[in-house]
Every structure is written in structure tokens, then in C-alpha cells.
Amino acid sequence: MKLHARRRLAPALWFAASVLLLAAPVRGDAAATYKSKCAVCHASNGSGDTAVGKSLKLGDLRSPAVQKQTDAQLIAMISDGKGGMPGYKDKLSADEIKQLAAYLRVLGKKK
């Protein structure tokens, strides 16, 4: 490839890379939020294999039953709570809740 062609291509590549990074479904802070708010009960891997998780008989967040739920259902569960789980709509922003729901999808792929 000639030098002038590479110079024209470079800005396009930088633009494409920045769009991909901005469009990433889960930011690193979602993992940190999960760790601080959710992992004590649900475990760092989403298995529910913690003392609290076992006592509450929590399901595995990576399971097909959880993963088949829509994003809206996951967001509602995180926002409003479920069973003994508190809702987080007053503690987290709507964007943080959306990112947590996306992070649950990431956990589902790691099983």
C-alpha cells in the first residue's frame, strides 16, 4: 500500500476503533459495580455459590433461565429487586443498572 493511501486510511481506522470502544455493551465499571453490590450474594462468577447465596437458595445468574430473560426483565429485576434482593433504582443510575444487566450477559458467556 502506498504511503498516501495509508495516511488516508489511518483516520478511518481510528474513527472505527473509537466507535467500537464507545459502543461496547459493558464498561469496566459494570464489573466493579457487580463486585461491590452483587457478588457478596451471587458470587463473582454469578453462580450464587456463596454462604448468603446458598442460604437464600439463589439461582445461577449464568443459567439459561436467567439468560433467556429480556434486557428489560433483567433491568426491572435489578431496579425493583426480587425476593430477598433489594432494588437498586434509588442507589444506582439508570445507566449503571443497564450496564449491570449487560454484565449478566457477560457472566452467562463465561459458564
Instruction: Summarize the main sheet.
Output: none
Q: Tally the helices.
A: 7
Per DSSP, what share of the residues sits in E-state strands of 2 or more residues? under 5%
CATH superfamily: Cytochrome c-like domain
Nearest-integer average pLDDT: 83
Number of domains: 1
Helix fraction, binned, reads 55-70%
Structural class: mainly alpha
Radius of gyration: 19 Å
Through-space gap between termini: 43 Å
CATH architecture term = Orthogonal Bundle
Shape estimate:
globular
CATH C-level label: Mainly Alpha
Report the count of strand segments: 0
Low-confidence stretches: 12-24
Order of helices and strands: HHHHHHH
CATH topology name, in short, is Cytochrome Bc1 Complex, Chain D, domain 2
Structure description:
This protein is 62% helix and 0% strand. The chain has helices spanning 3-22, 28-37, 39-42, 51-55, 64-67, 71-80, 94-109. It has 111 residues and is mostly helical. The chain has seven helices and no strands. It is globular. The chain has a single domain, classed as Cytochrome c-like domain (Cytochrome Bc1 Complex, Chain D, domain 2, Orthogonal Bundle), CATH 1.10.760.10. Mean pLDDT is 83; it is low at 12-24.
